[in-house]
ABC transporter permease
Amino acid sequence: MARRRVPRWLAANLLLLPAGFWLAVFLLVPLALVVEYSFATRDTGPLRVVLPWTTRAYRTALDPAFLPIFGRTLTYAGLTALACLLLGFPLAWFIARHAGRFRTALLAAVLVPFWASYLARIYAWKALLDGEGLVNRLLGLVGLDRDGGFLLTDGAVILGLTYGFLPFMVLPLYVACERFDYRLVEASYDLGHGRVSTFFRVVLPGVWPGVLAGSLLVLVPAAGDFVTPKLLGGVDQSTFGSVIDDQFRGGNNWPLGSAMAVLLLLLVVVVLMLRGRRGEDVL
C-alpha cells in the first residue's frame, strides 16, 4: 500500500506552527492586553485597571504637555541614527572592501558588545562620564573638564544610545557594501568624476538599501529605549520610553502608560510603512 505524502503547502505551514505559536503567545497576546489596558480606567488597587472603557488615557497622552518629550524622543532617535551612520559606514566599507583575511575577526569585534549585558555596559558609561570618571579626568588635563562630569546631559544620552545600537547599523551596511560592484566606482573615475561626486552619484545609491535598513534598525529601538535616558540623563532628558516606564512603576497609571506605548508603536508602524519595500533585501 503506497504511503500518502503530505502536500507540500501543508508541510510548509506545519513548519510555521512553532514560530506562530511563540509569536501569538508572547507578542500578540501581550500586545492585545496593552491595547485593552489603554482603554481602561486607572485603579489604585491591586487590579491597576478597571472598567468602564474610556479614551481618557489617549487624551492625556496627546496633551500638549507631552509634546516636548515626544519631540525629544524623535530628536534623540534621529541623532543616534545619524551618528551610527557616520561612524558605521566607514567601518562597514573598510571591512567589506579592505579587511581581507581579517574580515571575520573585525565582524566578531563588532558583535563583542552583545556578549555583555546592555544594562552593565550603560552602567560602565555612567562611571566613565561621572564627575570623577575617566573621561572628565582626561579632559581635565587639557582644561576641558566639566563640573559634575557629563552625566545628565543630552550628549551623554546620545552617546550611550549610539554606543548601544552601532552594531545594528554596521551589519546591514556591511552586507550592502559587500554586494556593491566596485567596478562602478572605477568606471566613474574613468568618466572623470572625482571622489566626492562618485560617492554621492554611485556609492551611496548602490548601498542605499543598507542605509535604510540600518537606520530603521537603530531608529526604532532608540525611540523606545528607556534605560539609557534614565541612567545617563535626568528629568530634562526624559523620553517617551522613560515616561512609559514611570507610569507602570511609580506613577501607577497603567492606562496612560499603555496608551503611550500604543502611540509609540503606531509611530514605528508609520515609519516602516513610509520605508516601503526598499531595503528589504538587506533586512
